[in-house]
Design brief:
single chain, alpha+beta, eight-stranded mixed sheet
Length: 497
């Protein structure tokens, strides 16, 4: 922040502080007042359209976003949770004292107004103010050119200002809330029960990811913020809860990117006596219900303007077929690692030569194939090495009975026919631990030994789903307060008092 900007902000704060002091001298304390709302901006406008022959009175409250004073009358707009509505105040109707107080308020002040509605000559539904009160004084000015800011970091650090001044951002977060509510309603309509499981785990299991570590003082041992919901939910299947889901925060101490935030929201759902194909039906129905109930359309556009059709049937194709198609090599899966590495150079992708054989192939999928899967695609039967928690395919034990739903070039939802054989599960865990520094979750294995029913399971990254359904370009645009490096502490610029 430049010195001139700092000085200007300081001066405006002082001016507004003076206005606050004057109000208090007159017996009005904005921070001790309230206002009873009868409507929001949207419901008020809807009511007027129903009863436009009558002067319907409403009472609303919101933040002043602009003001146009014309001597004995003034127009202003106020912003509430639904949006903006215009107000009109006239000295002879509101009374001289209240009128002159109203016109002296600052942009950003929060007021309550009441009065009848009418339509201006330009066709805008407007409230004719017959009474008003200030209920909060804004001590800092709103940014004048917020939309012109190039520094996204400033927007994320000041989400409150972003929501005040950016209608697109405000609508996106309202839509996020509506989508999550729709997911809950849909799953409950399918007889699933929502549960909550612990956030602190003594073993970081259920996914291959680096955890955040914290110390539990009362137990004097380290715990991990959960990296997945999976293992606790499967124990509920053992306990007889046949259809369960959880929407919760998970934490992975890994990189930041436009598609990754270390703290994110995950939906995991498990259904006994089902399999990965049952999960296909579930995610297909869930997303199409969101399209119908929230979006109002099954055709959406990504951030590049490319249309994606979520209605109708979705493509299903095996992982192996996609690899063979991309490499144009029918013998790919019988070739040595060295031959595959040599082939990747001709495919135009760089692969770390220290990777395992199956990881070289998966690099081909992630770098060459997945970004092209724009329309909804169920990629089925991935290699067994990629997931230790799914059932092996009976016809081809080198692959798993799973799918990854890819839309707009990224994975939206992986789903499995869950492994319920405790002996095979232990072997797969041990193979994974051989590659990673993870402990064996003996409590989960003991639960499986009680008898876990066959089941289908699925995970959905809620933030990625919101990116898809709202056309956001960055995961941080879908998270109200994304992870950011702390700002350096600076001395306060405002004078005391």
């Amino acid at each position: 922040m430049s010195k001139n900007t700092s000085d200007n902000t300081h001066d405006l704060f002082a001016v507004r502080k003076g206005k606050l002091d004057k109000l208090r001298d007159e017996g009005i304390d904005p921070f001790r007042q309230n206002w009873v709302q009868s409507h929001t901006s949207t419901t008020a406008k809807a009511l007027y359209k129903l009863e436009e022959d009558n002067e319907v009175e409403v009472s609303i409250a919101g933040r002043i976003t602009n003001m146009n004073v014309m001597g004995k009358a003034m127009f202003a707009k106020i912003l509430d949770r639904d949006g903006k509505i215009q107000i009109y105040a006239k000295r002879e109707e509101l009374g001289e004292e209240k009128y002159f107080k109203l016109r002296k308020h600052d942009i950003g002040d929060i007021i309550g107004v009441s009065g009848p509605m009418f339509v201006t000559k330009t066709g805008e539904v407007t409230i004719r103010v017959t009474d008003y009160a200030i209920v909060s004084k804004s001590m800092r000015p709103l940014p004048e050119k917020w939309h012109g800011l190039a520094d996204a970091d400033t927007i994320y650090r000041n989400r409150h200002l972003d929501l005040i001044t950016n209608e697109e951002s405000r609508d996106r977060f309202k839509k996020r809330s509506a989508i999550i509510s729709c997911i809950r309603r849909y799953l409950e309509s399918q007889d699933f029960m929502e549960v909550e499981t612990s956030t602190l785990h003594h073993i970081a299991g259920g996914a291959a990811a680096r955890p955040f570590v914290t110390h539990f003082n009362a137990l004097d041992c380290d715990f991990y913020l959960r990296i997945a919901l999976e293992l606790h939910l499967k124990r509920l299947l053992v306990g007889g809860f046949d259809r369960v889901f959880e929407i919760g925060r998970v934490f992975r101490n890994e990189g930041l990117s436009r598609r990754h935030n270390p703290e994110f929201t995950m939906l995991e759902v498990y259904q006994a006596y089902s399999d990965f194909r049952g999960m296909m039906d579930l995610i297909h129905g869930m997303i199409q219900t969101i399209c119908k109930d929230v979006l109002g359309t099954a055709t959406i556009a990504n951030s590049d303007g490319v249309e994606i059709e979520l209605g109708g049937d979705w493509r299903e194709v095996s992982y192996k077929d996609l690899i063979l198609e991309a490499t144009k090599d029918p013998e790919w899966f019988s070739r040595s690692k060295e031959e595959k590495l040599a082939a990747t150079e001709g495919l135009g992708i760089q692969v770390n030569p220290e990777l395992e054989d199956y990881e070289v192939t998966n690099n081909v999928f992630e770098k060459l194939i997945e970004p092209t899967l724009i329309q909804p695609t169920f990629v089925t039967h991935i290699p067994k090495e990629l997931c230790p928690l799914a059932k092996l395919n009976e016809e081809d034990p080198s692959v798993l009975d799973v799918f990854e739903l890819c839309i707009n070039g990224q994975e939206i939802a992986p789903a499995y026919s869950e492994q319920n054989d405790p002996f095979i599960q232990k072997e797969m865990f041990e193979a994974q631990i051989g590659e990673e520094t993870q402990d064996l979750d003996t409590e989960f294995l003991a639960a499986m030994e009680q008898g876990m029913p066959p089941a289908g399971g699925m995970g959905v990254g809620i933030d990625r789903l919101i990116i898809l359904l709202t056309g956001a370009a960055n995961i941080r645009d879908t998270i109200l307060f994304p992870a950011l490096r702390p700002e350096k502490k600076e001395e306060a610029e405002q004078e005391e008092g």
